[in-house]
Amino acid sequence: MWRAFFLAIGIYMCILGAECLAVERFEMAQESAAEAGGATLFGSPPATTATREIEPPEWAPWSFLSVGAVIILYALTINRGG
């Protein structure tokens, strides 16, 4: 069970590192007030298009890739005990 857990964490870290390497910034749309609550007593609220931007630092892609690779190598060396 631990072997599969560490292998999954390592693969996830490598995928996250590759994504950060390929993408300059991530934009996530927030839920608008109209979708969240619907209409109110005084009419529907104005629709907002607020976004949240995440810009990974320069060191993040390579750090995620290297840590993921080390965790994968560790997971492959764990004994297959029951």
Structure description:
The protein is mostly helical. The chain has one domain (1-29, 49-82). The protein has helices at 2-22, 33-37, 60-77; strands spanning 26-29, 51-54. Helix 1 packs antiparallel against helix 3 (60-77). The radius of gyration is 21 Å and the shape is elongated. The model has no long low-confidence stretch (mean pLDDT 84).
Report the β-strand fraction as a percent range. Answer: 5-15%
Could you list the spans in which at least 5 consecutive residues all have pLDDT below 50?
none
What is the residue-mean pLDDT, rounded to a whole number? 84
Radius of gyration, in Å, reads: 21 Å
How far the N terminus sits from the C terminus, by CA atoms, comes to 8 Å
Global outline: elongated
Distinct helical segment count? 3
Topology as H/E string?
HEHEH
Question: What is the number of strand segments?
Answer: 2
Total of domains = 1
Can you give the helix content as a percent range? 40-55%
What's the helix and strand layout?
Blueprint: H1 2-22, E1 26-29, H2 33-37, E2 51-54, H3 60-77
Structure summarized in a few sentences:
The protein has 82 residues and is mostly helical.
Output the keywords.
3 helices, mainly alpha, two-stranded antiparallel ribbon, 82 residues
